[in-house]
C-alpha cells in the first residue's frame, strides 16, 4: 500500500470527491510530503452551542499564522432531493461558525472538481489562498512556453555558433521575458562553474521586486539573490544573481566595489532606456562574458540606439500580434473613441505636447464625465488601469469615479514610496475597480487580472503605447480579452495607432465612394473599432474562435492539400486557404511542425537540403537528360525510385537507388526536373527552366569530364573544386549562363538561407567549416523555414552531407574560396529576398537597401542604413566594412 492510500484508509477518506481533491489538486500544489504532514482530514472544532463538528480537510499548524478549512460537497450533494432543507441550513450554520472562529473557508463541489473549465478555477483559487502559507506551495520550476523555447534556442545559437557576447531579445510585454532570462542565465552560469555570477539591471524598483521573485521560481529558494537599490544592500558579493537598480549601481561608491569581470552574465531589462548616460557608464565599466538586452517592440529611433549598443545582434523578435494569435496573450477589443478636445490649442514642441496645457484642456468636467459614461457602458465595473496626464488629472478622475460608486484610487510617483507600494498592492488585491496612474504601470508591473485599459491622454510613443497595452494582455483565470478605451482627438496619432495595432500589413482598396483608402490587417486576435468622427468604422473582425477537434483540423489539411493537387502544404498555404486561425493548430499541437509530424506529412529534408550531392552530379544528370540518354547510366529506370519503395535485392541495388534519389531530389528542388511530389511517378521530365539550362550550358556539358571513378558508382573522378572552377570559368564569359545560374540558385531556398547565415549571422571573412556545419541547422532563420514548411529534422553529421553543396554553389559563383578547414568569403551576392527583414517592408525600402548595398563603405543619411546595419553589423556604411563596391553582386528584379 502506497503512502497516499494509507493516508486515505487511516483517515477514512472514502468519497471520490475528497480523493480527487487530495490527489489532483492538493498534491500537485503542495506536494505529497506536505499533504501527509499538514492536511488534516475530519478536523474537529467546537461550535458556539458546544457541539463538536468536523471539517472535511484543514490546515492548522503552529508553523503557520493562518488556518484554512476545505469543505468538499460529495457526489450526491446536488442530486435532486438528496439534501434536505434541514441539512442544507445546518451546512450554512457550520460554515458561519468557521468564519466567526477565524477560519479561512473554501468550499468546492464535486462538479467543480471534475469539469475541465471549473477545475482551472479550483486550482487558481487554491493557489491564491495558499499564498499566505509560507513555503507550503511547492516552488515549481517553470517550463518554457513555445516562444521561450524558440528564444532559448536562438540564445544558444548566438553564443555557440555566432560566437557573440551580447544581443537583444524583442518580445511583447506579458510573454515571459523575465522568466526567459532566468532560464537562460541559470543554464549559462551552470556551464561556467560554481563561482559564475549574474547581474540583473532594472530602472524601476517594482520591476526589481517582481524580477527577483521570478528568478526565485527558476533558481529555487536555496540560491542567494542579492539586492542593490537606494534602500537595500543585501548579499552583494555572496549572491548568485544580484538585482540592481541602474541609479544605485552606477554611483561611484557602488560600481567600484565590483571588478569589471565580476559578472559572467548581465541582463538589462527594458533596454530601450539603455541609451541614457547612466546605462552607458554601466556598459563601459562591466565586461561580462554575455550580456542580454530585453525589450518590447521599440520605436525606430529607440531601436537604432539599442542595436548600436548590442552590436546589431538581434537574437530573436516576436511581435505583439504573434503573441496574441498564438494565445500567449489575451485578445484585444479596442475602441478608438472621440475626444472633443481641440488639440490645435495645445502647445507642441515637435516631439510632445506641453504638459500644463494638456492638464488644463483635458482635465475638464465634461470630458471626465464622458470617460465615466464610457467606462460604465463598455467596462461595466471591470478592473481597469487608466493612464492620466498628471497628478491633478488622476486625483480628479478618482474622486469622480468614487462619487459614482466605483471604487478608485490615484497612483503616481509623487506619493510617498511606501504609500505608492501600498496603493499598488491594494489595487493588486482587488480593493479597487480602477487605478488612475501617472507615469506608472507603463512597464514592469504585473497585475494579470486587469480586464480594462483607458488611455486618457495622447500616447505619442509606440514604445509607451505597446507597454501600456501590455498591462492588460496577460493571461488570467477566466479572462478572454482586454477592452481598451482610447480617447482620440484631432492630433496626428490616429494613423500611428492603426499602424501600432496592426501586424505591419496594409493594402489599398477602393471604397464605395470610388476613392482608394488604406486598410490595416489587425490579425485574428484584435477587434479594432474607431468611432465615425475618428475614422470610417472599420470592418469588424470576428473574435470568435471555434473549438476545432484534431480530426477537424486534419480534415481541413487534406481538403487544402486536395485543392493544391496533392502537394504537401506549408504554414502559409494554410493561412491563405483556411478560415481556421493558425493559433488553433498551435494551441492543439504546440506548433505547426508538430501538427504536420502528427499527420506523417513532414517533407524529407533531402528535398530542401540535398544530401551527398555535388555540382558534378547535377551536371552529370543534366547531360544525360539533355541527350535523352538514360540507359546504362546511374539514372536508368532500374535506379530511379522517387515514388514507391526501394529494391530489397542482396546486390546492393537499394543503396544505389537511395543515392540516385538524393541527387534527383536536388534537381527537383532547383526546379530543373518536374517534382515527383506532384507527378507521383518515376518519370524524369525536364521543366521549362531545365530545358533552358541544357541549351545554355550545352558547351560546358559537352566538354566537361563527368566520368565516375568506377562503373556503377556515384563517386566522381574529378574533385568538387574541379566542377566549381569549370562552372565559374564558364559563367564568367557567358552572361546568359551567369544570369541563369545565379537566378537558379537564388530560387533555391537552402542557398538563400546559406547566404543569410554567412553574411548576416557570422559576419566574418574566415569561417570554420565545422562551425558552419554544426551551426547551420541551429540558425533561427533556418529553423523558422523548417518549422513553417514541415521538414524533417536534419541534425548532427547530416549537415556534413548537406552544407558542402551550398559551399560549392557559392564557390561556383565566386562568392567564397573553399580551403581545407575553412571557407573565405570574397563577395556578397544580394537580391530583394535577402534584404527583406519583415513582411512589412515595402518595395521602396528594399530598393533603397539594394542601392545602399552597391556602396557599402559610403556614409549615408538614408533611413534604411539602420536596417542594413541590423543585417551586416555596425561597420556597414563605414570605411571599416570588409567589402567594397567591387565585392558586391546586386541582382535587381
TrEMBL record:
PROSITE patterns: HELICASE_ATP_BIND_1, HELICASE_CTER
Pfam families xref list: Helicase_C, ResIII
Matching SUPFAM superfamilies: P-loop containing nucleoside triphosphate hydrolases
Cellular component, GO annotation: cytosol
Protein origin, superkingdom: Bacteria
Molecular function as annotated in GO: ATP binding; DNA binding; hydrolase activity
Ranges for domain Helicase C-terminal: 370-520
Residues annotated as domain Helicase ATP-binding: 158-316
InterPro entries: Helicase/UvrB_N (IPR006935), Helicase_ATP-bd (IPR014001), Helicase_C-like (IPR001650), Helicase_Restrict-Modif_Enz (IPR050742), P-loop_NTPase (IPR027417)
Protein name per Swiss-Prot or TrEMBL: DEAD/DEAH box helicase
Organism: Limosilactobacillus reuteri
Organism lineage: Bacteria, Bacillati, Bacillota, Bacilli, Lactobacillales
Amino acid at each position: 500500500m502506497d503512502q497516499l492510500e494509507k493516508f486515505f484508509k487511516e483517515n477514512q477518506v472514502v468519497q471520490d470527491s475528497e480523493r480527487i481533491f487530495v490527489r489532483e489538486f492538493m498534491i500537485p500544489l503542495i506536494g505529497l510530503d506536505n499533504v501527509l504532514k499538514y492536511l488534516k482530514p475530519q478536523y474537529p472544532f467546537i461550535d458556539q452551542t458546544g457541539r463538536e463538528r468536523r471539517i472535511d480537510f484543514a490546515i492548522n499548524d503552529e508553523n503557520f499564522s493562518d488556518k484554512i478549512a476545505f469543505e468538499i460537497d460529495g457526489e450526491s450533494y446536488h442530486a435532486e432531493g438528496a439534501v434536505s432543507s434541514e441539512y442544507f441550513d445546518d451546512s450554512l450554520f457550520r460554515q458561519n461558525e468557521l468564519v466567526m472562529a477565524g477560519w479561512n473557508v473554501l468550499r468546492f463541489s464535486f462538479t467543480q472538481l471534475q469539469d475541465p473549465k471549473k477545475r482551472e478555477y479550483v486550482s487558481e483559487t487554491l493557489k491564491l489562498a495558499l499564498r499566505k502559507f509560507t513555503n507550503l506551495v511547492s516552488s515549481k520550476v517553470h517550463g518554457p512556453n513555445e516562444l521561450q523555447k524558440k528564444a532559448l534556442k536562438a540564445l544558444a545559437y548566438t553564443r555557440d555558433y555566432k560566437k557573440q557576447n551580447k544581443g537583444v531579445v524583442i518580445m511583447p510585454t506579458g510573454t515571459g521575458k523575465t522568466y526567459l532570462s532566468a532560464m537562460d542565465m541559470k543554464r549559462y552560469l551552470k556551464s561556467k562553474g560554481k563561482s559564475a555570477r549574474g547581474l540583473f539591471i532594472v530602472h524601476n524598483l517594482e520591476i526589481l521586486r517582481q524580477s527577483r521573485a521570478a528568478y526565485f521560481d527558476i533558481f529555487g529558494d536555496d540560491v542567494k539573490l542579492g539586492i542593490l537599490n537606494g534602500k537595500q544592500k543585501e548579499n552583494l558579493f555572496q549572491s548568485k544573481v544580484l538585482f540592481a537598480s541602474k541609479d544605485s549601481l552606477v554611483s561611484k561608491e557602488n560600481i567600484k566595489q565590483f571588478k569589471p569581470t565580476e559578472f559572467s552574465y548581465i541582463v538589462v531589462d527594458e533596454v530601450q532606456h539603455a541609451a541614457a548616460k547612466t546605462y552607458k557608464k554601466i556598459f563601459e565599466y562591466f565586461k561580462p562574458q554575455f550580456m542580454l538586452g530585453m525589450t518590447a517592440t521599440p520605436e525606430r529611433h529607440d531601436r537604432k540606439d539599442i542595436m548600436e549598443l548590442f552590436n546589431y545582434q538581434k537574437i530573436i523578435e516576436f511581435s505583439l500580434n504573434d503573441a496574441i494569435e498564438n494565445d500567449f496573450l489575451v485578445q484585444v477589443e479596442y475602441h478608438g473613441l472621440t475626444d472633443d478636445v481641440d488639440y490645435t490649442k495645445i502647445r507642441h514642441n515637435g516631439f510632445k505636447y506641453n504638459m500644463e496645457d494638456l492638464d488644463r484642456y483635458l482635465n475638464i468636467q465634461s470630458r471626465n464625465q464622458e470617460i465615466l459614461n464610457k467606462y460604465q457602458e463598455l467596462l461595466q465595473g471591470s478592473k481597469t488601469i487608466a493612464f492620466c496626464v498628471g497628478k491633478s488629472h488622476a486625483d480628479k478622475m478618482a474622486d469622480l469615479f468614487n462619487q459614482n460608486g466605483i471604487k478608485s484610487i490615484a497612483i503616481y510617483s509623487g506619493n510617498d514610496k511606501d504609500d505608492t507600494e501600498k496603493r499598488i498592492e491594494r489595487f493588486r488585491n482587488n480593493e479597487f475597480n480602477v487605478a488612475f496612474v501617472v507615469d506608472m504601470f507603463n512597464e514592469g508591473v504585473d497585475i494579470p487580472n486587469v480586464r480594462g485599459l483607458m488611455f486618457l491622454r495622447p500616447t505619442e510613443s509606440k514604445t509607451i503605447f505597446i507597454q501600456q497595452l501590455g498591462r492588460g494582455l496577460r493571461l488570467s483565470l477566466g479572462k478572454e480579452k482586454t477592452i481598451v478605451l482610447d480617447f482620440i482627438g484631432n492630433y496626428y496619432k490616429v494613423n500611428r495607432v492603426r499602424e501600432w495595432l496592426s501586424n505591419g500589413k496594409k493594402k489599398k482598396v477602393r471604397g464605395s465612394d470610388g476613392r482608394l483608402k488604406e486598410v490595416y490587417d489587425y490579425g485574428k486576435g484584435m477587434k479594432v473599432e474607431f468611432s465615425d468622427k475618428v475614422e470610417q468604422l472599420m470592418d469588424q473582425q470576428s473574435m470568435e474562435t471555434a473549438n476545432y477537434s484534431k480530426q477537424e483540423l486534419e480534415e481541413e489539411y487534406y481538403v487544402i492539400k486536395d485543392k493544391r493537387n496533392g502537394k504537401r502544404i506549408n504554414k502559409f498555404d494554410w493561412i491563405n486557404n483556411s478560415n481556421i486561425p493558425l493559433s488553433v493548430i498551435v494551441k492543439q499541437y504546440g506548433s505547426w511542425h508538430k501538427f504536420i509530424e502528427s499527420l506523417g506529412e513532414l517533407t524529407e529534408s533531402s528535398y530542401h537540403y540535398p544530401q551527398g550531392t555535388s555540382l558534378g552530379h547535377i551536371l552529370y544528370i543534366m547531360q544525360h537528360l539533355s541527350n535523352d540518354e538514360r540507359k546504362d547510366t546511374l539514372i536508368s529506370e532500374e535506379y530511379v525510385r522517387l515514388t514507391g519503395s526501394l529494391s530489397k535485392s542482396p546486390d546492393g541495388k537499394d543503396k544505389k537507388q537511395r543515392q540516385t534519389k538524393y541527387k534527383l531530389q536536388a534537381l527537383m528542388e532547383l526546379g530543373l526536373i518536374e517534382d515527383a511530389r506532384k507527378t507521383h511517378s518515376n518519370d524524369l521530365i525536364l521543366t521549362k527552366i531545365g530545358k533552358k539550362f541544357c541549351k545554355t550550358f550545352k558547351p560546358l556539358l559537352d566538354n566537361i569530364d563527368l566520368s565516375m571513378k568506377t562503373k556503377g558508382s556515384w563517386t566522381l573522378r574529378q574533385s568538387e573544386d574541379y566542377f566549381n572552377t569549370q562552372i565559374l570559368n564558364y559563367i564568367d564569359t557567358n552572361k546568359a549562363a551567369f544570369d541563369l545560374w545565379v537566378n537558379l540558385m537564388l530560387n533555391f531556398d537552402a542557398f538563400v538561407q546559406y547566404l543569410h547565415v554567412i553574411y548576416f549571422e557570422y559576419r566574418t571573412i574566415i569561417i570554420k567549416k565545422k562551425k558552419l556545419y554544426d551551426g547551420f541547422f541551429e540558425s533561427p532563420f533556418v529553423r523558422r523555414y523548417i518549422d513553417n514548411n514541415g521538414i524533417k529534422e536534419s541534425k548532427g553529421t547530416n549537415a556534413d552531407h548537406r552544407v558542402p553543396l551550398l559551399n560549392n554553389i557559392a564557390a561556383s559563383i565566386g562568392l567564397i574560396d573553399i580551403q581545407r578547414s575553412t571557407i573565405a568569403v570574397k563577395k556578397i551576392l544580394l537580391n530583394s529576398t535577402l534584404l527583406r527583414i519583415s513582411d512589412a517592408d515595402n518595395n521602396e525600402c528594399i530598393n533603397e537597401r539594394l542601392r545602399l548595398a552597391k556602396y557599402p563603405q559610403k556614409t549615408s543619411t538614408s533611413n534604411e542604413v539602420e536596417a542594413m546595419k541590423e543585417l551586416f553589423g555596425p561597420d556597414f556604411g563605414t570605411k571599416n566594412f570588409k567589402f567594397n563596391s567591387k565585392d558586391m553582386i546586386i541582382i535587381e528584379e
